[in-house]
Amino acid sequence: MKPELSRRSFIQLTTAATGGLLISLYLDKSSVLAQQPPPPKVYPPDAFVHVRRDGHVVITVNRLEFGQGVQTSLPMILADEMDADWSKVIAELARAEDVYKDPLFGIQMVGGSGSIAHSFQQYRELGAKVRAMLVTEAADAWKVTPDQCRTENSVVYGPGNRSARYAELADDAAKKPVPQSVKLKNASEFRIIGKRVPRLDSHSKCDGSQKFGLDLDLPGMKIALVAHPPVFGGHVKSIDDRDARSLDGVRDVFEIPLAKGSAVAVVADRFWTAKQARDRLKIDWDLSGLEPADTEQLFAKYKQLATTDGNVAINRGDAKAMDSVPRANRIVAEYEFPFLAHAPMEPLNATVKFEGDKAEAWVPSQFQTMDQAVIAEVLGLKPDKVTFHTEFAGGGFGRRATTDSHIPREAALIAKRFRGTPVKLIWSREDDVRGGYYRPMHVHRVEIGVGRDGMPVAWRHVVVGQSLLAGTPFAMMIKDGVDETAVEGTKDTSYNVPNFRVTAHHPTVNVPVLWWRSVGHTHNAFVMETLVDELANRAKVDPIAYRHKLLKADAKKLHSVLDLLDQKSSWRKTLPRGRAAGIACHESFDTAVACAVEVSIENKRPRIHRATVAVNCGLAVNPLSVESQFQGGLGFGLTQLVEKGAITLKDGHIEQRNFDGYAPPYIMDVPMTVDVHIVPSTEAPTGCGEPPVPVISPAVVNALSRLTGKRYRTLPLKTV
Amino acid sequence: MFASIRLLTTVFVLALFAITISLAAKPDRVNTAAGLAAWDQVYSVLVSPRCINCHTATNYPQQGDDRHRHFANVVRGPEGFGVPGLNCMSCHQESNADSTGVPGGPTWHLAPLSMQWQDVNDRPLSSAAVCRAVTDRSKNEDMDGPSLLKHHAEADLVLWAWNPGRRPDGTMRTLPPISHQEFVAATRTWVEAGTPCPKGR
Amino acid sequence: MAKYRLTVNGSEKTVDVDPSTPLLWVLREELKLTGTKYGCGISACGACTVHVDGVATRSCVVPVSLIGKREIVTIEGVASSPLGRAVQHAWVEKDVVQCGYCQSGQIMSAVALLKGTPSPTDKDVEESMGGNLCRCATYVRIREAIASASRQIKGAA
Q1: Minimal-distance CA residue of chain A relative to B99
Q2: Are the C-beta atoms of residues A222 and A403 closer than 8 Å to each other?
Q3: Is the pLDDT of residue B170 over 90?
Q4: pTM to 2 decimals?
Q5: pLDDT tens digits, one per residue of A369-387
Q6: Residue A550: CB atoms within 10 Å
Q7: How far is A663 from chain B (nearest CA, A)?
Q8: Pairing mode of beta strands A591-602, A580-588
Q9: How many CB pairs under 8 A join A and C?
Q10: Does C96 touch chain A (CB under 8 A)?
Q11: CA distances for A15 relative to A107, A398, A469, A476, A645, angstroms
Q12: How far apart are CA A548 and CA A438, in angstroms?
């Protein structure tokens, strides 16, 4: 059973548990494994596989499905080793349970592009164990040895014409001991892994039947909306709720505490009633003593800071080498990146039903273990008294993995007043756009000394931006004043610059920030890849050839994707007038990506005619899914280029409200075609959720620079 | 020249002037100067956001008093009604939807490109240019003076400008600078003067 | 509160709601047709798209009081037409969906597009689908699915 989680022990648990997350993101694999407690060796197969009498094989997925495709890919892995009939596989999302924790991270979660990377071995072993138990059962019945049997499509075949369906064997096979170790297939024996397998959730998502968290409908359920302070951290001074309460169907209006400040909850029978009631609230807010964050002022401050050395992230070679480079041979570049909202299509929500000594929760959650613990804490329960259902999520991109579980926390605070009644908290789109937890804004200032051969000899790089980890249970992960999430992709670049220095400043700003799909790589890759392209241009060397030359020899994955990209993007050589190609490559989450785009300028905006992508993600478990992730991930990455791709603040207030002011890419903003090419590999699979994101924006901007001769260092792009 | 008079003269005085002229004078005796003054009033309405936002020269409508491009990539379409998957009537109903802040009126649509009252950079055209367009029967759906008067007096989407409903935040949309009655009166004066247009580009 | 008789997916339904309630919430909360999604509430994302007398309509901004006698078709009913089936089939065939949340609206917009323009050009697709946001950015496959559905309906005609 789980240990009792007092508030104090909760913090300990989360720091320890999520320490794994951060370690794995920033250190190499061997040190991760060295620092992690060994994952439990034996998972009970019955927690993951249920062979039904009707022949269906129900496989439990230990992750949230929010578009990345694990609801298909993880069952593929298990079914392959199990030799299950794929056409009869049904996938289910797991509740929050210890057994479903990420084997590496130690909590149940999706993040760090780890779903396949961390559960590949786990799901293979599970499948092989179940298969072994079924085979043993058949062999025993036939009085033969298991190695005289073979399996295919949910059937065990024995000597002679003997055969038995898994469904017939399952009940007795389940009584067999779970084998401690099993032999796994050779890659050549895979029948499902490595195939382009269509998603299991396609039909339900095309006919309206797929239920997401927001679609949950329980008897007697109430809907809650929350009026949040107009400036982060504000407190409710007084509430005039007479108008709000006069509406038919309003059940209650009350103040709830927030992690910082307080807010007003409105509970009603229906969404529209709750929304109208919230609109009618007159709230007097206490905003005294709060820093009114202001984008313009922050950029000015950040730029000032960027001219000074920050805390050292890396210092290789001679920091003074720059001084010997003549000024004419130096590039000085200053970059601006705004706050960005994740804005998943399904608005944030959580449903909680509190029943005194227990509770039930339905949350589209990337962080089940923590969300469950927070709900329990609010309700004064042990976590195992909170039955936590993982609901399908309409996107997330990091937004459903918050360090303070603030959405489930609000839901629990409200549900606590409605004992016995399920309450669904909905954050309207306005709440989401204005609610904080953004990709932090950043300024980069880079000075590069270029040698006579056109290669960089000295590189001084200052990154300024809020720490994602400061003030969270992960603050202990900040090393020597540097939050690794701010410098990932720069500090650990595979480009070989002899004298290389990256430092960071992390100002404190009154705006909550959060990891945004691919985290620090969003801005770091943009800076690195636009500058390397500028260097290639300056050296008059092909951008792919230049990158090969600048990359360390042991950056094998990056070299492999550049090679493949070069082969697959021969269209670069025959572009019509008015079009240019742009290149970028980047490695993140152990996956290397190279991308070429064909761009022209239409109505002062980039028009991306096509993208060609080369990927090295180790073994591609489901190449169709990898292709989709890359096609879509490029589009997501373009959030930082589109005209309305910025959250800005004026005097503490968010200037955007909804998708009218903060508009992510629409269909015409993304490449018209994307062809994805995967480097053949039998190495362990690595993530594909985040790695597509970093490459696209620099690739597009590099093409634009070739068209116009201008440099684009302020995002979002206004006019070209 | 007349544009500057318009700038220097209050709308109220002009309105009274126009109404007086139109009531007092017989059609053939209304002088051109009064007609032009009345046109200035008409023009002030045509270039107000409630009207000009749907008289663009581009492939999109505008919205708001700052006349920004309509959000969500709304386009004109071949007939000014949008396109099959994204029609004006995808959102704009037969009447205003005040609870959601979406304006509406019968057959909500964009004016044809021939009736563009702004340039491709979204700047309003001059009084003279708008007047020429409005009076050009090859561009204005073959409307003569009386038809224009009837259009200004009765057309649903013209009337909408004085009943534009609430914004999404619940506040009322701003109205054209003069009342509908004044607008019709000014149009009448202008029509009775023979729809004179200011000189110039 | 007021009673409204609505024709939804071919059957008559009576609801008793505040007249200002957007059709979206009547469909989702009163009629339990949750395939139609709430994404923004201001008609900027298209997740709530349904057909009202055949017109692709953003149900999140249309108060139920303005529907009148017009017939409503939602994602749950779109397969009753051969075109609707063809589009759904193409969506599955091309493995379009990721998180899937926006896809009801995408499909409803695509059906309206193909009904009006059976052989759409790239520009037609961009314009008709231009108001439907997909945060997973499945747009490349949406284009492929529309092209596939277009071929299919032409083949059938």
Answers
A1: A276
A2: no
A3: yes
A4: 0.93
A5: 999 999 999 999 999 999 9
A6: 21
A7: 8
A8: antiparallel
A9: 188
A10: yes
A11: 11, 18, 11, 8, 33
A12: 35
